[in-house]
Amino acid sequence: MADITRRFGWRHLRSAPTAHISHHKRGTLAHDGQGLSFWYRSLTAALSEVPVDDRELAMAFHARTADFQDVTVQATVTYRISDPAEAANRLDFSVDPDTGSWRGAPLEQIATLLTETAQQHTLDVLARTPLASALVDGVASVRERVATGLAAEPRLPATGIDVVAVRVVAIRPEAEVERALRTPAREQIQQEADRATYERRAVAVERERAIAENELASQIELARREEQLVDQRGTNARREAEEKAAADGVRSEADAARTVRLARAEAEAARETGAARAEAQAAWLRVHAEVDPSTLHALAATRLAENVPRIESLTLSPDVLTGLLAKLGRADGGTGA
């Protein structure tokens, strides 16, 4: 929309570069073009503003397929006004000289024209297409048919409108039909998910079985090695006992032989000692047999005196002394001394 300002009964208009302005003064074209800026009097001016930029028109409408299923078509048409003068002649693009706003609704008229034309061609295509085909290939076929139909529509060039592009966003059935159509795919996906779950569980069970078998094999191998260890320990114990017994036997035999040899040596020493003592005793007896008895008595007294404790003093009573002397005298008389 153009910017209009007031100054002392005059009006000043300033338009955008994408708007085509036509200014008629008393039926004569005074200004015509894009991005204009000029002064005018509102009482004598007739203004029109035609946008020449690309505009997007979103549309949504219902259609019915060959199998009598309702679908919703969402599309977008890009158009532009290529001939502003022709458009201003066919549609009301006049603006209020005081406010700059359109007096009518020209863009709504263009939107209605494009929407009804596109809907007509869309209905023509979908009425001959089953629902399944419409959902799979309908977007391309509808886009192509709408673009061709809009290009062939004679009213659009006559109004100065060019269709730049046509886009079909989606073709969707009713919610219940869409859920029903999704059910087989969902079931198949669920079956695939279940199959994957079962396979994963089977793999997990197989791995658990392999782990259990490995553990059992490890336990069996461990038990076998323990059995071998016990047997080896028994063998080692028996061998150790046998070696110890053999060593004890050898040690006992050596001790016995040493004891026997020691006993024999002691016996031999005892015999020799006895023989020597006997011989010495015999010699001692022979010597004493050849010696005079008084000498023997003297020797006996000497030996006795050697073994008698030391006597510092001896007191004899007269009676004892008399008896002792008597005995000595008799002894001397008996021996002839």
UniProtKB/TrEMBL annotation:
What is the official name of this protein in its record? Band 7 domain-containing protein
- Where composition is biased (Basic and acidic residues), the residues are 237-252
Q: Where is this region: Disordered?
A: 231-252
* Source organism phylogeny: Bacteria, Bacillati, Actinomycetota, Actinomycetes, Kitasatosporales
Where is the Band domain positioned along the sequence?
33-197
